[in-house]
Amino acid sequence: MKTAVVWFKTDLRITDNETLMKAISQNDRVIPVYCIDEAHFKTTPFGFKKTGCFRAQFLLESLIDLDRNLRELGSGLHVVNGKPEKELPKIVTKYKAHRVYAKREVAFEEKQTESLVQAELWKLHCELETFSTSTLYHAEDLPFSIKDIPDVFTDFRRKTEKEAPIRNTFDKPTRIYSPEIPLLNLPTLSALGLKSAAIDSRAVLQFKGGESEAIKRLKHYFFETKAISRYKETRNGMIGADYSSKFSAWLALGCISPRFIYQELKKYETQFGANESTYWLVFELLWRDYFRFMMKKHQSKLFQKSGIRNKELATEKTDWKLLERWINGQTGNDFVDANMLELKLTGFMSNRGRQNVASYLCNDLNFDWRYGAAYFEQQLIDYDVCSNWGNWAYLAGVGNDPRGNRYFNIEKQATDYDKNKVFRNLWLNQWQADS
């Protein structure tokens, strides 16, 4: 019997999962595995946890949901803890697997882990086969090679939209043949070195992990409320669940795929009509693709202070008190402070807020942008390595912004996007009352 392992990572879904479908179609038995990588819960050189409590909770919920969905198909999720390069070979040996199927990585640390796993599997005469499952457009279908992708988004978007196809989604499997998979046994947050924290009741959404929740959210935003038809007008909002899709958290862990969202969007447009707003969601998914392709092109440069532009930034020496005031919403700038409190207490912040607090850290505080990126990595439920570091480099003037430096007039932004101070009052007044 041909036995294969499916190594789940940030593709925690059964619908539109090429990795899973290829493994099922090419083998007699499949063992779905997730490794809780100890490296993901360490402290970074910037002094922050790689994974904070909000995202860790979302991950655990997503694993519970994936296990449930796999068991309905006759399988289950085998969860192991430790280093993937040590734990996956143990599974391969135990089940006599000849191949491991996994999502292809592009970011520096993830690629290193992938290489370590591949080297260890090779010793067991076991192949690692990887698939590109994270983007709307497949890298092989782009009208240029990765090394020739334009460093300006607009140039990339125009040519890609014009010349590249979007592939069809993969169906959900109907049956998975597996040996008996042990019952799910997940660590607690405290076992991962984290304190449990409930999402503040003022949060735009009480995020819950898993593919089931992702599809429920999509149905709500598209078909139940038709909020997608107003997306372009409302996307700069700051309060409430439906000013934007909020798909980012589920996309980040791969609980839903961009192609599945696109497929459902086309169904929506057929039923209710297309407009600028429905297009704008595709536009945002394309930005997400772009940052992933940029990571593939520039590799570790997006983690360096000088970025892809090799631009030396004259930042001041690190003042920890300044950074702490920014983190804790105590800068004295009410718009920045309200947004930072939202992030601290919920693990989420609006797109408008993210741009302003990043501009403030880089330009007003003259701080090394990588500390901001590292804090977001810890704090955000929807942290995505490519989008996070790509966006921060962009705001810091060392990434893909053709203008080189994006300074936000925060007082004007506050007036434009929080004219009556509703957002600021929501976060600052309650916080002052609680303090």
Automatic annotation (TrEMBL):
PANTHER family: CRYPTOCHROME, CRYPTOCHROME DASH. Pfam families: DNA_photolyase, FAD_binding_7. The keyword Cell division does not apply. One of its GO terms (biological process) is photoreactive repair. FAD binds at Y231, S244, S245, K246, F247, S248, D382, Y383, D384. InterPro entries: Cry_DASH, Crypto/Photolyase_FAD-like_sf, Crypto/Photolyase_N_sf, Cryptochr/Photolyase_FAD-bd, Cryptochrome/DNA_photolyase_1, DNA_photolyase_N, Rossmann-like_a/b/a_fold. Residues 2-136 form the Photolyase/cryptochrome alpha/beta domain. The lineage of its organism: Bacteria, Pseudomonadati, Bacteroidota, Flavobacteriia, Flavobacteriales. Gene3D superfamilies: 1.25.40.80, DNA Cyclobutane Dipyrimidine Photolyase, subunit A, domain 3 (1.10.579.10), HUPs (3.40.50.620). Keywords: Chromophore, FAD, Flavoprotein, Lyase. Binds 1 FAD per subunit. Binds 1 5,10-methenyltetrahydrofolate (MTHF) per subunit. May have a photoreceptor function. It comes from Flavobacterium cauense R2A-7. Belongs to the DNA photolyase class-1 family. Its cofactor is FAD; (6R)-5,10-methylene-5,6,7,8-tetrahydrofolate. This is Cryptochrome DASH. One of its GO terms (molecular function) is deoxyribodipyrimidine photo-lyase activity. The keyword Transcription regulation does not apply.
